[in-house]
Amino acid sequence: MNTVILLGIVALLLFLRQPLLVILLSATAFIHLVWGKGDLEYIIEDMWIGLDKELILSIPLFILCGNVMTRGSIAQRLIDLLAAITRPLPGGMAVACVLACAVFAAISGSSIVTMLAIGSVMFPAMRQAGYDLKFTLGAIMSAGTLGIIIPPSIPMIIYGLVTETSIVDLFAAGFGPGILLTVAMSAYAIWFNRKRPAESFSFDEFKTAFVRGIWAVMMPVIMLGGIYSGFFTATEAAAVALAYAMLVEIFVHRELKFRDFYNVVLEASKLGGSLFPVLAVALSLNIILIEHRVPQGMVAFMQGYIDSPIIFMLVINVLLLIVGCLMTTGEAILVLAPLLAPVAAAYGYDKVLFGLIMILNLEIGYLTPPVGLNLIVAMSAFKQPFGLLCRAAIPFILIMMGCLFIVVWQPWIAMYFVNGKLWN
After folding, report:
1. Phi and psi angles of residue 136, each rounded to the nearest 5 degrees, phi first
2. Residue 29 lies in a domain
3. 1 occurs within a structural domain
């Protein structure tokens, strides 16, 4: 009976279109009162226990670092360098857009930051060069999603927090699928623009762009190299990235003034202010669910109906694709990861691999209505109608679903780097 009441409360709040924070807080309060110790003060205690982790500091640091680079010229210099390299290719500017998003993703950890930083430069440039409008929009929006696959990734950090999974292993798992997606999108860009005349390679242009962009290129090398060499942790890497970005933008590129830093911090605080209350409540809920062995109950329930790991993965992928249309990536991970990761482990799927598959599914959700964040942000940033953006994303959604299928079919693509063969 109590379970029915809980589901009724959640359904009512969803019907009333309440924010996720209200829904999670209501569910957590009900569980504490009915199945817990009957005292709502324990919610606050569990929230504090959940947030009392050093790793959480990396999230605001990566957000702040992304904002610093967006205000500065690191994105522009990356684009100039990659455009000089890809000039001889048909659709070279489109390929440069995809590659720039991939490199910037290795710095920012955010899909939206990546899309805005690269897209604000590439959209007018590609349109001026005569690229098709729908293709240009689709390329920018889809390449922006690489921000949550190529490490470092804020959704990976959140998944690691709620499932107690190694962040370093999750980051390593993102390399293979990230490269696969980058190659697939670049190949489609070349094929779509195959009739465009190729330009000749200019060594002087490349040399100039390389000299201007060397500081930007070194940033992901220093950060990721430090993580995988064991020189610093993911949290320390975020601090190093922020310090490096500020030093480069203020003293080397001189594109960012000290007076601009107030607005940069303010923007990062707004994003963090919307994320951390939800994260705190979700971690509190996670603690009480574990105490009452809810994940183990879900394992027993699922195994009573599904015997095959393949069928289980098929069902989960369909579920996550649907969830990605209705919830943001962070919300979906906070709600579903603590429940689904133990079930996946019972079917023989490593928590790291399952986390990567989960994020790949939810990555597609950035491009699917009604809650596709890249669609919504692009509508405002590029002043284009929502329907056109949805249609522009379709070819790239199919490409991403194909890459998802390949990773599920051949999990070594993700796990190869986790096993340490890259750096051992």
Report:
1. -60, -45
2. no
3. no
